[in-house]
Specification:
single chain, alpha+beta, 5-stranded antiparallel sheet, 35% helix, binds flavin-adenine dinucleotide
């Protein structure tokens, strides 16, 4: 994109030790930064532990792109239209970064700072993504709308929903792409869902909260800010309805 002019380019591709998918914690996953998006599609550990990751990564470009693109590249690039950053935000992932001075862990909520901006410092590389698993009685879904299959989404929503013993919503998490200068976590909508009975009324209240929460959706030749707000609301309702169905099925 010619956003930076560099005097040296360091190719990480040969660091084979940074390409892996491993179980992490009870039900979570650790992904080496050089894991290709395509590797997620064929990995049985990822499929059984976090099917949402597969569902979302299938929307990344098309197979030729996914064969080359890395999960670390997507996160470090921090494109607000990309699927994985929004997903990592919704899933409360954390990232390990390393430099010659040592390593540190950054929560996804502190990582994405603005348009293509992250909290990575000079000399640091991203080495690992760690994603906690979902609690019992949870369901999740990723839905997006793009003009053509494989295009970046005009809007996309990652949702997780956890039901309490009484069937009400104990926790909901929503991460949105193409909804602002950085991936967006819809906190007000999550709050609005807590304690509610799953159903159309709860979904439309959450959609209204998402629409009110989106302060700076992009506005371009593909869609105005208002159109994207509307789309984000519709996709929120869909993602929550699917998540609830899956959560009920997992009981
Ligand atoms: C035609 C096309 C369609 C696409 N469609 C989509 C789409 O629909 N959805 C989507 O999400 N993405 C899409 N992408 C983006 C693609 O999936 C990759 O995420 C993106 O190109 C980054 O590729 P990469 O992993 O090779 O990283 P690179 O291009 O090598 O790096 C991207 C940036 O991150 C930095 N970086 C990379 N790895 C690290 C690391 N480990 N530590 C620190 N910094 C690092 C680099 O310095 C660079 O600034 C598309 C790309 C193309 C070309």
């Amino acid at each position: 994109m010619r956003l930076v002019h560099v005097s040296a380019l360091i190719d990480l591709n040969e660091i084979g030790g940074l390409a892996y998918i491993r179980p992490w914690g009870e039900e979570g996953l650790a992904l080496g930064a050089l894991t290709r998006d395509a590797a997620l599609e064929h990995d049985t550990t990822a499929a059984s532990r976090l099917p949402l990751l597969l569902e979302a990564s299938r929307y990344v470009g098309h197979p030729a792109i996914r064969n080359r693109s890395t999960v670390g590249g997507s996160i470090a690039h921090a494109d607000p239209a990309a699927e994985l950053p929004a997903l990592m935000l919704a899933l409360d992932a954390e990232f390990e970064v390393r430099s010659r001075a040592g390593s540190r862990t950054i929560a996804a909520k502190d990582f994405f700072q603005g348009y293509l901006q992250t909290s990575l410092q000079d000399g640091e590389i991203l080495t690992e993504l760690r994603i906690p698993g979902l609690p019992a009685r949870s369901g999740s879904a990723f839905v997006e709308f793009a003009r053509r299959e494989g295009d970046y989404a005009l809007a996309g929503v990652a949702a997780t929903l956890t039901l309490g013993e009484d069937g009400t919503i104990a926790q909901a998490r929503l991460g949105l792409c193409s909804a602002g200068p950085a991936p967006v976590r819809a906190h007000a909508a999550e709050e609005a869902l807590r304690g509610q009975r799953p159903g159309p009324e709860a979904w439309s209240a959450a959609a209204a909260a998402v629409i009110a929460e989106l302060k700076e959706p992009p506005s371009d030749i593909h869609g105005s800010a208002d159109y994207r707000r509307h789309l984000a609301g519709v996709l929120t309702e869909r993602a929550l309805a699917i998540s609830a169905k899956r959560a009920e099925g997992s009981r």
